[in-house]
Write a structure and sequence with these properties.
Elements: E1 2-4, H1 10-14, E2 22-27, H2 41-60, E3 66-68, H3 91-107, E4 112-117, H4 123-137, E5 140-145, H5 152-155, H6 170-179, E6 193-194, E7 203-204, E8 209-210, E9 218-219, H7 237-260
Helix pairs in contact: 2-6, 2-7, 3-4, 6-7
Length: 263
């Protein structure tokens, strides 16, 4: 049965099968997403992804053993710190926050944790944490990516010519609109390109040769730092629903294998 962690009483929690139950921990962030999208975009996406994942799982299995932990609403957002409203932990603070949550869960007997990463900047910390927890505690901390952005159905939602769609762009803005269109102000939207990299063939903000990018690298055509990738003006709620549903479905096979994991 899929339930919210915080809804259970202590007595109910004592009855949970800690060996088999997956604790799904959604990891959000509080950071700028351009002129048009809210600071809580990643938290909103995290909450929506949990909803869609639950729906997809329950279509196939009524008794899937999972507890949904509250969304962690702040993450590692160093790259956005110079844009108004962005909040970030230091890397060591964020590591120890997640570590302490994991230790508490392990102390009560939980063996399978699944971190749902809804902000890419959180990924490096979670990857290190996963290995350390396996080594120190002998538990199984899995990592799930919340966006199936390379899936053909998701890529098809991006407007033609919008080649730089990335953080705060058309896809993420659409995902927020699928939850609450009133939170998005498309009339203020501006497109962003990674200005220092546009003429490079190898050195890019991501890939085999890269540098830790910061929001100031992403600028408007006029050179103003905008902090997002691509043009969000083609975003729609329908596109967002496609992205969220496709991304949730892409995670279901992995969650089933986590359920069956005996490592």
């Amino acid at each position: 049965m899929i339930r919210n962690y915080r809804d259970l009483t202590r007595l109910e929690m004592e009855q949970v099968d800690k060996q088999e139950t997956i604790v799904l921990i959604p990891l959000g962030a509080l950071e700028q997403h351009g002129n048009q999208a809210p600071l809580g975009t990643d938290d909103i996406i995290a909450e929506a992804m949990v909803k869609y994942i639950r729906e997809e799982l329950e279509k196939e299995e009524e008794d899937f053993p999972m507890l949904i932990f509250p969304v962690i609403p702040v993450g590692l957002s160093t790259e956005h710190r110079n844009f108004c409203g962005s909040i970030t932990f230091r890397p060591d603070t964020y590591y120890h926050l997640l570590y302490d949550i994991s230790v508490s869960l392990a102390h009560h007997g939980f063996k399978k944790l699944a971190f749902l990463v809804c902000h890419g900047g959180n990924s490096p910390i979670v990857q290190v944490l996963s290995r350390e927890l396996r080594s120190e505690l002998g538990i199984s901390p899995f990592i799930l990516s919340s966006g199936a952005f390379s899936h053909p159905d998701v890529k098809a939602t991006v407007s033609e010519g919008n080649i730089w769609d990335f953080h705060g762009g058309e896809m993420e803005t659409s995902m927020v609109m699928a939850v609450d269109e009133s939170l998005v102000k498309l009339d203020t939207a501006e497109a962003g390109i990674p200005a220092p990299f546009v003429n490079n063939k190898t050195l890019l903000p991501y890939g085999s040769v890269s540098i830790g990018w910061v929001s100031e690298d992403w600028r408007t055509a006029e050179g103003k730092p905008i902090g997002i990738g691509g043009d969000p003006r083609g975003a729609t709620a329908e596109k967002g629903r496609i992205i969220l549903r496709t991304s949730a479905r892409a995670l279901i096979p992995g969650l089933k294998e986590i359920r069956d994991w005996k490592g």
